[in-house]
Design brief:
Radius of gyration: 19 Å
Order of helices and strands: HEHEHHEHEHEHEHEHEHHH
Strand order of the largest sheet: 1-2-3-4-5-6-7-8
Shape: globular
Structural class: alpha/beta
Distance between the termini: 23 Å
Number of helices: 12
């Protein structure tokens, strides 16, 4: 039986040793299989996460958890897998804690800071009682806000939320969700360094799709330990699927090119390929390498 890891030791090790672990959004069964396949083939730990919108599309948070765990079993996955709620509100975070997700992100960035902090503390208490990891967000990750991105996270807020007990902290440092616009000014490394110098917890880079490789690597060197990827895989899936149709393979009736399993295969394989490339960018070491170096103690993976 597969088990879900809360990722605390994994991300602490990532911050200490200056690499990152990818957090990849799932959107359906094919996405889940593609992500798990890349993780197993590269022998690297992985965080699968689901947004509120994707969970609704898939049939709810319970179905998502069932799909991930059952797919892990059927594929004989042997690397650590973290299942995370991505950008959850207060009620969604409580629901996923009750369901047994191994990690939740409570996103209260739109709330007044005091309310965000108070609700984050409630989520931390509920989650930590069950050995579940908690991620919070400070500042504002850009959403269609032009080249400047969102509001920069403050160092004082970082200290406050870490003191409250968060396990991972997502910071607004000029990053943007979705496709980056022309003229984007890039990540604010000065603010990232200030936050990294002030708090010891693993830091999270949202909107990882589309950030140039050199900026991703520099962010990791400064304390980023988790990088969120979704749009990049959607674009990879779209491109491979488009090629399938442009080649008129769907019209090949003799070979049943119209079969949905064949229609979905090129896009699914493209996700796996894109993820393997991203793992190289992040510098995620294989579990076999970590165990060999005695730097990765599997027995402590779920410890607080």
């Amino acid at each position: 039986m597969a088990y879900l890891d809360n990722g605390n030791q994994i991300f602490k090790d990532a911050r200490k040793n200056h690499y990152a672990v990818g957090a990849y959004n799932t959107n359906n069964l094919e996405w889940t299989r593609a992500i798990l396949r890349a993780a197993e083939e590269t022998r690297t730990p992985v965080l699968i996460q689901v947004s509120t919108g994707a969970a609704k599309y898939m049939g709810g948070y319970k179905i998502v958890k069932d799909i991930v765990e059952d797919t892990m079993d059927s594929m004989n996955i042997s690397v650590p897998v973290v299942l995370n709620l991505d950008h959850g509100d207060f009620e969604s975070a409580k629901e996923c804690i009750a369901l047994g997700y191994s990690s939740v992100m409570f996103d209260g960035h739109a709330l007044p800071t005091d309310e965000n902090l108070a609700k984050t503390k409630e989520i931390i208490k509920l989650a930590h009682e069950r050995g579940i990891s908690v991620e919070a967000e400070i500042g504002k990750i850009g959403e269609n806000q032009g080249a400047d991105g969102g509001e920069l996270a403050s160092v004082e807020d970082a200290k406050t939320f870490v003191a409250a007990g968060v396990d991972k902290l997502a910071c607004g440092i000029g990053n943007i969700h979705g496709v980056y616009p022309e003229g984007w000014k890039g990540l604010n490394f000065d603010r990232l360094k200030e936050i990294a110098d002030a708090v010891p917890v693993p830091l999270v880079l949202h909107g990882g799709s589309g950030i140039p490789e050199d900026q991703v690597k520099k962010a990791i060197s400064l304390g980023i330990s988790k990088v969120n990827i979704n749009t990049e895989f959607q674009l990879a899936f779209q491109g491979a699927t488009r090629k399938y149709f442009e080649a008129h393979k769907d019209e090949d009736k003799a070979n049943k090119g119209y079969d949905p399993r064949k229609l979905l295969l090129p896009g699914t394989e493209a996700i796996t390929d894109a993820m393997k490339e991203m793992i190289g960018w992040l510098g995620t070491p294989s579990i076999d390498e970590e165990l060999k170096n005695a730097a990765f103690d599997r027995s402590s993976l779920n410890e607080e």
